[in-house]
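User: Thanks for the earlier help. One more: OsmC family protein. Can you show the sequence and predicted structure together?

Assistant: Of course, both are below.
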Amino acid sequence: MATIHRTAKAAWQGTGKEGTGQLSTQSGVLKDARYGFQTRFADGPGTNPEELIAAAHAGCFTMALAFQLQGAGHTPESLNTEARVSMEQEGSGWAIKAVALKLQAKVPGCGPDEFHKLAEAAKANCPVSKVLNAAITLDATLG
């Protein structure tokens, strides 16, 4: 069985509310990207863990759907996915409760029933969907 490893690093200075951190990824796409309380709970400059989970889920699902479509003999012209992560307060902490995937797709030769079946399979089977303990919904539009 093959195993793939990917890494990211976080560094933090200061308290939870006033401190700041930097995130870096193995690939170098993120290098000392700023994050902190303002980027997580307000609209300050920088990124946050939930935004990165949304990006990971959108990317994972979209690639999984491309493979599903390929396996069914279809080549997508375009697949555009937005993932919206919803975090709710639980007692003194927070939890990711839901992810809403919104997909706009152009897939020549693929009918709506087959498309929705393949999209649901991609949602259920992409590795990021499998790791999230959240309700995952899909609004898929074939145009």
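User: Great, one quick takeaway?

Assistant: Residues 8 and 25 are 4 Å apart (CA to CA).
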